[in-house]
Design goal:
The complex is a heterodimer of chains A (354) and B (432).
Chain A lengths: L7 H5 L4 H14 L9 H32 L24 H4 L6 H34 L5 H13 L2 H11 L5 H6 L10 H28 L3 H9 L4 H29 L3 H6 L10 H10 L3 H31 L8 H16 L3
Chain B lengths: L2 H22 L23 E6 L5 H12 L5 E6 L3 H13 L7 E5 L3 H6 L18 H5 L2 E2 L2 E2 L2 E7 L1 E5 H6 L9 H13 L7 E4 L6 H13 L16 H16 L11 H9 L3 E6 L3 H6 L7 E4 L12 E8 L6 H11 L2 H11 L12 H6 L3 H9 L10 H16 L5 H17 L1
Parallel strand pairs in B: 1-2, 1-3, 8-9
Antiparallel strand pairs in B: 3-11, 4-5, 6-11, 7-9, 7-10
Classes of the chains: A mainly alpha (354), B alpha/beta (432).
Chain lengths: 354, 432
């Protein structure tokens, strides 16, 4: 696994150089054994084998996406003032629902957009720091390690709705948070403190996720690398910056990507902890849900589609980042074998949180 | 882009799309509801369903069981919906949007009538078939849309003022206050007492949710203002409405209402009252029996809500039953609705689950008054109650009220500005 991820700087630097090339050689011997496998016939078989998956994906992913997009082109049913009844059909309004976000009604959208972005940036940054620290602790061999590991993972195991309720009690006006700081802050009211409450609860809950994925990454770093580094006189800090971090980077990036995607569609925590329709914490998902619950499916679908593109762009950015940083050999020729190897790596990582 | 990136891209695209499905599933299948008959005919007999919130007291099943034994061929099945009111509404709307006949009789919050009627999700009902003249008039009003009956009151509810009789008595006050000024004066006296140290005067429900709409509407109505006029048009930017809102805003400023009450829903207020932190509390009748088991047991009583110049007006709570337009066996359904909303059933609901009945006579029943001493006060409260705005886009109207009232209470806006903005918001939402 390590071979495909050896970063360029690792080979350039003194202490890690030998380790990098050694791992590289190990993989080279395996390389090419499967090359003849990818013939046209087997390609057809492969296509046939994945077709059920594709079919399921079409039904559960593609179709709803297209339907949501179609729905976003329709407006709100009008009320006939004479009869007092709502009309039966939704008017086709084209891209008006999208254009509206640049008009008066857009304030709420942009507020939700910035909230979403703000939450994503702050929570993911904090979670990464704390998560890596947790992973380093969990990775160390010491007495009571199993207990610490289980303890760190508990927040992640608690359903978000439940942790929202728990934190609601903590941030209650007579709650323990106020007792600890010795000053009454009404956390669930509008204002920056509401954002802070969400960030604290979210970081508490999801840092273990990053910790878990990084731990998986740490465990595949061979001990010899560290031995070699120690022989070359590298201190703990140098080992962390020059070995641990570069080698765990692919795992970390995948973890951060997942967290970003997750944070961008944040809904339940602010909804339960702070409450619906609070401008300070309203995210795009909450806005779309609110519109849908007021029977305005067109605008709701438009917001959902915009969120989709936003998430998609972020994901795309990350993948570019992954492609550039992880592989680090954009100029060189690529073999299908190595590509598959990385796929598998990513897929393995993906299984961990599920 | 190289192959491995593409693959990762696909991976993440799938994830992203899966996320979208979650967000979008509420939005697909929206455009439906085509031609349906305007004049309902109540035909067909057979099994039907009754969709309502999960009932922890078991009384709903008890009433349904007694119907089922009398009508073995027209059995009613109780479909339990989530306890959360918004989720109940959501499920009923989904049921209507897909024109499903899964729900026959719907238990609806009193504020949903206009929306459901305007969308033709529920049928207009023949008023002559129900004993509406025996019911409290404000409750019947909540069941109407544009003068036509679309639902039948099954249970009512009104806000009442809980107050600490022991403290008032010690301070030499014999009767509960009927105006806000009296209430503030009483508080000033009570707070002189050593045992009232650290207590706050008054609280209601001021968190940004439906309860704030209720409390705002009560303040405005109690000062002689309205949110929407008799024709359903917004008319909230008036001096009377301002006086109502100012009572709440000023009370927050001068400490009559404690600062943390901005986070209070019903339960937080009840707990504050029960733990002796409040002299006066606006809440629903359900608090009575719970407070009787707390440390303020025997030390409190209920009174009608105070107002600006005399007794105030409560908002109306409660539930109505309506008939889904897409249901089968509507003749049975109509009979069942009549049975379910009868005086006998209402008295069972009151005895077993302390649900306030829509029937006037039950409030004067000596045995019941003995069981629930607050009944006479509640009757007064409901008789003087004003329904919350009866508009089709109730959800929008209520959020607009919450938004502006909250801004005024937290001092983000002056009360005049909040009312002005609220008026224009309500007009915008009505124009849709």
């Amino acid at each position: 696994m390590v071979d495909t991820k050896t970063p360029p700087d690792a080979t350039a630097d003194g202490p890690t150089g030998p380790a990098g090339s050694r791992a590289g050689k190990a993989s080279a011997s395996r390389k090419g054994s499967n090359r003849a496998w990818a013939t046209a016939a087997s390609g057809r078989t492969a296509g046939l084998l994945v077709s059920p998956t594709l079919l399921v994906l079409t039904v559960v992913v593609l179709y709803p996406t297209i339907m949501a997009f179609r729905e976003s082109l329709y407006g709100v049913k009008g009320l006939d003032p004479k009869t007092g009844f709502i009309s039966d059909t939704e008017p086709y309004v084209g891209l008006k629902n999208y254009a509206d976000i640049f008009g008066d009604a857009g304030d709420r959208f942009w507020n939700a957009f910035w909230n979403t972005t703000f939450f994503t940036v702050t929570t993911v940054a904090l979670e990464t720091l704390i998560g890596v620290a947790m992973a380093l602790i969990m990775h160390k061999a010491f007495k009571g390690r199993a207990l610490i590991r289980a303890g760190i993972l508990i927040p992640w195991a608690v359903p978000t709705a439940i942790s929202g309720l728990l934190w609601r009690w903590i941030f209650n006006s007579d709650g323990i948070a106020n007792a600890l700081i010795g000053h009454q802050v009404l956390w669930t009211t509008e204002g920056f403190h509401a954002k802070a409450a969400v960030i604290i609860a979210e970081v508490w809950k999801t840092s273990p996720f990053i910790g878990l994925l990084v731990l998986a990454g740490l465990q595949v770093i061979p001990k010899e690398v560290y031995e070699a580094a120690r022989l070359d006189g590298a201190g703990p800090l140098a080992q962390f910056w020059r070995i641990t971090l570069p080698l765990v980077k692919p795992a970390l990036l995948v973890a951060v990507l997942f967290r970003c995607l997750d944070a961008l569609r944040m809904f339940d925590l602010p909804y339960i902890l702070i409450g619906a329709q609070k401008n300070s914490v309203e995210t795009l998902s909450m806005l779309a849900q609110n519109e849908a619950s007021n029977v305005r499916f067109g605008p709701a679908a438009a917001y959902a589609v915009l969120l989709f593109f936003y998430v998609f762009l972020i994901a795309l950015g990350f993948v570019r980042l992954l492609g550039a940083d992880v592989v680090g050999d954009t100029g060189g020729p690529r073999t299908p074998q190595r590509t598959r190897r990385l796929r598998r790596t990513v897929a393995n990582r993906a299984e961990v949180p599920a | 882009m190289n192959a491995r990136t593409t693959r990762v891209l696909q991976c993440s695209a799938v994830l992203v799309a899966a996320g979208l499905v979650l967000t979008a599933c509420g939005s697909s299948g929206g455009s439906s509801s085509s031609g349906q008959s305007k004049s309902p005919s109540f035909t067909g007999r057979g099994p039907i369903t009754y969709a309502a919130a999960k009932d922890s007291s078991g009384v709903v099943q008890k009433v349904i069981d007694s119907w089922n034994t009398q009508h073995p061929k027209e059995k009613v099945t109780f479909v339990q919906l989530p306890a959360d009111v918004n989720q109940q509404r959501q499920q009923m709307i989904q049921n209507a949007e897909t024109k499903s006949d899964a729900y026959t009789v719907l238990s609806m919050d009193v504020v949903w009538t206009s929306e459901f009627a305007a969308h033709q999700w529920i049928d207009q009902l023949p008023a002559a078939r129900f004993p509406l003249d025996k019911m409290l008039k404000p409750t019947v009003e909540t069941a109407k849309y544009r003068g036509n009956l679309y639902a039948v009151p099954a249970a009512s509810d009104g806000g009442v003022l809980y107050y600490r009789t022991d403290l008032l008595k010690k301070a030499g006050i014999s009767a509960a206050p009927t105006t806000w000024a009296e209430m503030k004066a009483d508080c000033a006296k009570v707070k002189q007492l050593p045992e009232a140290k650290g207590m706050s005067c008054y609280a209601g429900q001021f968190e940004k949710y439906e309860g704030l709409t209720v409390n705002f509407a009560e303040a405005v109505n109690s000062a002689g203002g309205v949110i929407t006029d008799a024709g359903g048009k917004p008319d909230v930017d008036t001096p009377a409405a301002k006086k109502g809102l100012d009572f709440l805003v000023d009370s927050f400023k001068d400490g009559t209402i404690p600062k943390e009450a901005i986070t209070y829903q019903e339960e937080e207020g009840r707990q504050a009252f029960q733990s002796g932190k409040l002299i006066f509390l606006r809440n629903w009748p359900y608090v009575y029996s719970l407070a009787q088991k707390s440390k303020v047991a025997g030390k409190f009583a209920v009174a009608p809500l105070p107002g600006l110049t005399g007794p105030g007006s409560s908002s109306l709570g409660g539930h109505n039953v309506a008939l889904s337009s897409f249901a089968k066996n509507k003749a049975t359904a109509l009979d069942f609705m009549k049975f379910f909303t009868s005086e006998t059933s209402a008295s069972t609901f009151l005895k077993d689950a302390s649900l306030a009945p829509p029937y006037e006579s039950l409030y004067d029943d000596a045995a019941l008054v003995k069981q629930y001493p607050y009944l006479p006060v509640l009757k007064k409260s409901i008789l003087g109650a004003v329904p919350r705005p009866r508009v089709v886009q109730y959800g929008d109207a209520s959020s607009a009220v919450q938004q502006e009232a909250y801004a005024a209470l937290t001092g983000d806006k002056s009360s005049a500005q909040a009312l002005k903005d609220l008026q224009s918001d309500l007009q915008k939402s009505a124009a849709q």
